[in-house]
Amino acid sequence: MKPSAFATICTQNSDAWKSDWDVYLNAETLNKLSMKCMVDEDLIKRSCFYYNCDYIYNQTEQTPQVKWVMPLGVRTSHKNYGLQYCPFCLIEDGDRPYFRRHWRLGFMTCCPFHQNQLRDRCPSCRNPINIKRPQKPTKRALYHPEDIAHCSKCGFDLRRTEYAPALPDEYEINRINFTQSSLGYGNAGNLDFNYSNLYFEGIRRLISFLVCSPKGEKLFLHLRNKLELHQVYHRELIGHNVEPERLEIGLRRTALIMIYYLLRDWPDTFVDACKMNRLTSHLIKTPYLEFPFWVIDALFFHLQHPKYSVHGEEKNNIIIYLERKLGQTIKPNQISRYLNHYFSSSTQITEEENLDENTNNNDLIT
Ligand SMILES: [Zn+2]
Ligand SMILES: [Zn+2]
Fold first, then answer.
1. Ligand nearest to the CA of 117
2. pTM confidence score
3. Residues around the ion ligand 2 (C-beta < 5 A)
4. 134-178 pLDDT, tens per residue?
5. Strands 191-193 and 349-351
6. What do you get for the CA distance between the two ends of the chain, in Å?
7. Are 366 and 359 within 8 A, CB to CB?
């Protein structure tokens, strides 16, 4: 039967099938499914991202949402291309084709086994892949497991999709993402991760900045040019507050290739590219979002403004200027405070070490 009909029968709720069951099932649905199918609840939970996302996302348990999983939904006004597929994996399944969990993840754009680009829509009619409501040939009374390998709108056999090879860099980053999300650890470029969620959190922030934030446009265009990628990019089409898993597959592909390029000698290329495009850490860092250590390191140890070092003569001149303006003498223990004030509170300064404090201060006082 259709998964949508199955969901209705199990839950006695005709809307139940509309939510993404592979992402989250509430206690009531879990219980009903378990009772009707005679399958242990824990076993059902294992197939939901929500209960098994530690490797890719830090679950706060405040929303049923799981970052990186692309939304499927059922809205007709806006089509969600939330399910990807590899035609060759489907072919290898024989008469029991099934859709892999990793095809639902925004950081996957190519098959780690066949090195071809994943597809997120029917190549024939361009509609999203919908396995909740497959169609069967009218002359057949029952559904067959192979029906889900066909487009639910036009019936096209998805296994006949043309081969589209992934670029070598795209394949490499997909391989990294696949390994990290399956094992819970791994490496990427010159970095080792004991906890893969820190890797995914970091590339999520980077992709958000590069592609989803207007502030990242310069860096995006710089990298696109540098890597000779020909991604069509119109900021206004991306919209506001878009998250990486909601990006169109072409943009995700481009963003991942950029991330792969930046990670190879992290943080050098990234820091150079930011400096070239006059990007400072405060533009990239958003105060209410958490950044994992390896991104923070790059932003704060490499990108922050260098400390301004005051030369002895300059220091003297500033003090003389301030004393004249204030009409009073500045005491030696007040000098640092006045210098900080002079350079405004946001600029951190260091006083030159070799400065002979006493002589200068005596000069000032006299
Ligand atoms: Zn494949
Ligand atoms: Zn179709």
1. 1
2. 0.81
3. 122, 124-125, 151, 153-154, 156
4. 988 889 888 999 999 999 999 999 999 999 999 999 999 999 999
5. unpaired
6. 96
7. no
